Amino acid sequence: MNKLNHDPWWQEHFFPQAGGKPCDYIARDGKTLIAVQESPQGTRGLYNEAMQLALSLANRPEIERACLVLLVSRLSMERVQREWTSIKGVLQPDVARRLSLAAIGKTDWWVEPNEELVRRIAKVFQATKDGGFDATATIVKPRAKQKHLEVLKVLIGRWLLREGSIPVGKLAEQVGCAYSTVKEALDQLRQRKVIVRNSDRSVELAKFPMSSWSEMLVLSRNLRQTFRYRDASGEKPDPKRLLERLERLRPLRVAVGGAVAARHWQADFDLHGIPRIDLLLHAPGASVDLEFVGKLDPALQRTQDDNESPTLVIRLLQRAEPLFQPVPGTSLPIADPVETALDLNDLGLSAQANQLFAHFRPEIRLR
After folding, report:
1. Taking the complete model, does pTM exceed 0.70, yes or no?
2. Which one of 79, 136, 352, 362 is separated from 44 by 20 to 30 angstroms, measured CA to CA?
């Protein structure tokens, strides 16, 4: 949520939970879970979210408190209170005792039980609002096969950079998914005979997975969640100047991709100028904060017109570890080669993307 990262108490006690639902945030001591639901469609949404948290509590006795943060816009606070009482009435006593609610309305909030921790959580989320829910805060919905795609991207990146094998457990940690999900992705690669599984339970690509990469180019158009912005000032866009502002602003969890990153990875990158600014925003949790865009340039307006050439493109990176590359002498890191190549293909620069891969691995022959 917007401004959460600016609250010292929140930063000290909570961080985004990799993999998203049923929990969006987890306490650093591992004893408290938080799920966030924005504008539920009637009471069914409240019930479903509460049941998911209750199931987590039933399966994890070490969790002392699970809190549902409900951002109320359509339901009345009185209706929320009645429904919450009904929900807790059907739960086992041990689960009901550990389940709490922080309902945040436009002008008020209500918590149950009325404990200090739940009140503090409610105050943090209440402070994220300024006359309503901030439009810069966006709820991120997980998409099917997203984790499979992230497994493949990590493996291709390691192969390009000649980083060697990686333990399957560590791969699952970097992606932020279950071991079984990684196994499914690896089984698909094994069937295509492009993966090496070592005796120490580590894996690596044996060669570049041509067919998997072709599929990724198609799937990434939908799986890489994207925000496009145009310059509404009426003046000619100046990506270079925008990049300089980014360097000064230094937004959190943001890396530069696209043509700028390609020039970092390949000094003789074949392209004149900067067509636009491509950014990667690390978003492993359930929400992202795009407030920095307004600070970057108030003239930037979000557009959903695919035929309009954007000045700024922001893509979400939803795996647990961003794997950004720090660059000495600059304040912003660089996206990894795989994300960079995906950006170039989105720009229509497929030939340059292929050349970038060949820069790392001359044996690759892409057309």
Report:
1. no
2. 136
Tell me how far CA of residue 227 lies from CA of 134, 235, 301, in angstroms.
16, 21, 10
Alpha-carbon span 347 to 275, nearest angstrom: 9
Per-residue CA distances from 243 to 147, 296, 303, 366 (Å):
30, 9, 20, 31
Q: Which residues of 295-329 are buried (b: 16+ CB within 10 A; e: fewer)?
A: ebbeebeebeeeeeebbbbbbbbbbbbbbbbeeee
Q: Is 82 left (phi over 0), alpha (psi -120 to 50) or beta?
A: alpha
Q: Average pLDDT, stretch 254-282?
A: 92
Asked if residues 160 and 339 have their Cβ atoms less than 8 Å apart, the reply is: no
254: helix, strand or coil: strand
Orientation of helix 258-265 relative to helix 350-360, angle to 10°: 30
Q: Which of 241, 228, 233 is nearest to 346 (CA)?
A: 228
CA gap 235, 303 in Å, rounded: 17
- Is there a cis peptide before residue 93, judged by omega within 30 degrees of 0? no
φ, ψ for residue 294 (rounded to 5)? -65, -35
For 56, list phi and psi in degrees, rounded to 5. Answer: -60, -40
CA 205 to chain centre: 25
State how far the Cα of 143 lies from the Cα of 282, in Å rounded to an integer: 16
Q: How far is 181 from 187, CA to CA, in rounded Å?
A: 10
Contact call for residues 168 and 186 (beta carbons, < 8 A)? yes
Is there a contact between 125 and 1 (Cβ–Cβ < 8 Å)?
Answer: yes
Helix (H) or strand (E) holding 227: strand 226-231
User: What is the per-residue pLDDT across 166-175, written as a single tens digit (0 to 9) for each?
Assistant: 999 999 999 9
Phi/psi region, residue 298 (left: phi>0; alpha: psi -120 to 50; beta: rest), is alpha
β-pair partners for 104: 71, 109
Cα 74 from chain centroid (whole Å): 27
More confident residue, 44 or 364: 364
CA distance 339 to 271: 18
Which residue in the block uniquely carries the two structure tokens 């291709």?
156
